[in-house]
Amino acid sequence: MRGGLGPSAPTWVLLQQVVVRGLVAVKFLALGRILGPSAIGSVSIALLAVAIAESLSDTGLAQAVIQGRDTPTHQELGAVWTTLTTRGIVVALLLVALAPVMNRQFHLGNALALLQLAAALPLIRGLASPAYFVVQRNRGFQQLAGIETAAAFLDCCTGLALALSGAGAFSLLIGMIVGDTLKSLLTWITMRPRPPIRLAWAGIGHYIDFSRWIWAGSVVNLLLNQFDKVIVGKLLGPAQLGAYQMSSKLAQMLLTDAAFAMGQYLFPTFSAQHRHDARIAARRVRLYLMIVAGGLAILVVLLRMIAEPLFAFILGPAWMSAVPLFKIFVINMAIGALIAVFVAYLRAVGDAKAVTHASLIQMVLLIAIVPPMTHYWGVTGVAWSMTIGMGSAATWMLYRTLRRHDARPVPPVG
């Protein structure tokens, strides 16, 4: 990992992380203070529906294109675009159809239009050019940072302007829609090669063996990452879900987002290193893990110490009930940051099934411990259960990562 301002330098990933996550933090925290827990909870349920649908329909094609040995051909990109666009259309229609059911189940009152509006997000994302994945594969981080920053800036400005003008919970969703629209347009305007815009399904069968594990991991992660929100939203309502989401989101912004952003650099970088020399990639991931773990330990201690004044200053007294949850989530998200490094490496070396196995271990553990912990400790028990489950998944991925030094390399796709 070298510094500098070259197109493939990690500096661009860091700048993207600082700017994009900073804009997201400003938007989310400002809207939280303006709208309050109930409105944030309603939007969270709408976004939860999108996350569930996208996870269940995840094709894994983006990761397969990045990890594959050979650059995809023009025809293969056309088939990828057809598949992803079709997925976006189907998911959008499904969300519109199921919106009345979700509105009743989560007791949202007059939020039906909010749920239906959220259906535009997967449609817009599905229309983006798959050339984006080729740029990721080629480690064009400078170009990626420019597009992501522009989209996040427009999202933030639109959301805040609408919230201040009285648009309520719709302001957050409309901002996301406008930002995603700009991003999809820029993938077609600025990125090459452009895929043919026609229906084409054949030519990507060789991605299936790898992408099926990505899909399986997405389905399992759906159960792991969203079911707690479903439980809180269903049993306690939008206001409690808003507090739960805000504490989780703030911890994520402070701890996990940087690691996920770095994963955008590490995945294609580890893939390239593994193709060249698997042992070098194995040694480097151990170094990164030691650095990340040391930094996270310091941050967790600091954030738990300043949790109450942090919430009082940023969100105000209406959100102080979320402080105990935040103290748990900083531990949770620190583990999640380590997992992001594990996932980038294991997928880069072709061992995507190890990530899925880790998620399955976590799911089995959660099924066993969530009921009693929820019974005795309520929403706090749910939060601690998620932390314990993530710790088990991280332990398994650490074991698989350490084995890679002596293991026979798994050949890349293609």
From TrEMBL:
It comes from the Bacteria. Pfam families: Polysacc_synt_3 (PF13440). Keywords: Cell membrane, Membrane, Transmembrane, Transmembrane helix. The chain crosses the membrane at residues 43-66, 78-99, 111-132, 152-178, 250-267, 287-306, 326-346, 358-376, 382-399. This is PST family polysaccharide transporter. GO terms for cellular component: plasma membrane. It is a multi-pass membrane protein. It comes from Paraburkholderia bryophila. PANTHER family: LIPOPOLYSACCHARIDE BIOSYNTHESIS PROTEIN WZXC, PST FAMILY PREDICTED COLANIC ACID TRANSPORTER. It is found in: Cell membrane. Belongs to the polysaccharide synthase family.
